[in-house]
Amino acid sequence: MADSKEKDFANFTQLVRGRRMSRSFTRDEVDADLVDVLVDLARLAPRAGNTQGIEFLILESNDVDDYWKTTFNEKNRDDFPWPNLFNAPVLILIWVDPERYVERYSEDDKRKSGLGRGTSAWQTPYWWVDGGMAAMTILLGAESRGLGALFFGLFDHEEDVKAKFGVPQGFKSIGAIALGYASTEQRKSKSLDRPKREFYDVLHRGRWSS
């Protein structure tokens, strides 16, 4: 059993260290059942109070084209550094409903927290935290199955996307994940030139120290 756990951890370590965002995709299709499995795993990610306030919108084929037409004017694509991003055959849009968190924390077992008073009572809005955990679950799952993935925000296109695809007004966007098979040609993002801080630069034990 111990050997099995050590192997699992070694595999997990390799998975996390090897994961990268993919900005260039082939046009190869992704099996729909695999997409469903990834979303189902994201459904099982941690939730504050086990609140059921996260939902997923999967876009494929023509819906993907409609998404890009809604959010990315074709005139602006001419000088876009990653034109093969638009080849990704699947987009997974992650949405949260803050009011469901308020409702959950209005229930008897959570009422004393005071978080049922409204979204403004949440010093840390856990719908964003939970949505991030769901997104990371999909990213790691995609990596484990040899898929490329890119997380990106909707930014000022959120309302247009909601209107186009019928997303209820109460929902807020965590972001979207482009999913597909990564192209062998990946133009590096300038962000990768920024070095990661060293382990002991970010670690504090017992008390904060500079």
Description of the structure:
By secondary structure, this protein is α+β, with helices and mostly antiparallel strands. The protein has a single domain (32-180), classed as NADH Oxidase (3-Layer(aba) Sandwich), CATH 3.40.109. It has seven helices and four strands, in the order H-H-E-H-E-H-H-E-H-E-H. The chain has helices spanning 2-18, 32-43, 62-71, 98-104, 126-144, 158-165, 199-202; strands spanning 54-60, 90-96, 148-152, 172-180. Strands 1-2-4-3 form a four-stranded antiparallel β-sheet, with helices on both faces. Helix 2 (32-43) runs antiparallel to helix 5 (126-144).
- Could you name the ranges where pLDDT drops below 50 across 5 or more consecutive residues? none
Characterize the quaternary organization of these chains: single chain
Percent strand equals 5-15%
CATH class: Alpha Beta
Mean pLDDT value? 94
Radius of gyration: 19 Å
Strand order of the largest sheet: 1-2-4-3
> What is the number of helical segments per DSSP (H or I, 4+ residues)?
7
Structural class: alpha+beta
Keywords:
single chain; 210 residues; 4-stranded antiparallel beta sheet; NADH Oxidase
List the SSEs and their pairings.
Blueprint: H1 2-18, H2 32-43, E1 54-60, H3 62-71, E2 90-96, H4 98-104, H5 126-144, E3 148-152, H6 158-165, E4 172-180, H7 199-202
Antiparallel strand pairs: 1-2, 2-4, 3-4
